[in-house]
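A quick aside before the break. I want you to see a complete sequence-to-structure record at least once, exactly as it would be stored in a machine-readable document. Don't worry about memorizing anything.
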Amino acid sequence: MSDERLKKSGGESRGNRAMQDRAVTENRALSDEDRVAMFRQQFFQSSLPDLPKIPGWHMCWLTTTNPRDSIQTRIRLGYEPVKPEDVPGWEYATLKTGDWAGFIGVNEMLAFKLPISLYEKYMKEAHHDAPLREEEKLTDTAEFLEEQARASKSKVTMGDGHADIGQHREAQFDLS
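That is the input. The structure line, written in tokens, reads:
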């Protein structure tokens, strides 16, 4: 049983579709204005707008989709959601529906603020104190290995950077 409609060969009655569509595809050239609009839309979709500065606060975007860094955890740490009255002119970015309706947001991202004094303490802990504790652990381990090597009449050679590890330095942050 054969069906002529399913015929694969291009007979005389069957035209070349590429030739029929050629005029349509050739007329699809984009104008410069169309390209600028696409360019603008590309950047609008791929990044978040910069939040305005509020004196005394650190501003940031937080995601609602990370289960290991949840919004509720950040709130317990002192973060506060940004309301439209906190940043005049941002009413366009106010979420209309969902758990965070009435706050500033873009897709799954929410604008939050944190008192600058607390932000500075968090940054000191994350970028100075915690790494210094890790350096001290490395120094203790290296000293233990040196002692073991001496006890067994062996030798441990330390690299150039070993002398600086574990040295107490004051944290210097420029938050401007």
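Two observations worth writing down. The longest helix spans residues 116-151. The two ends are 80 Å apart (CA to CA). We'll return to this after the break.
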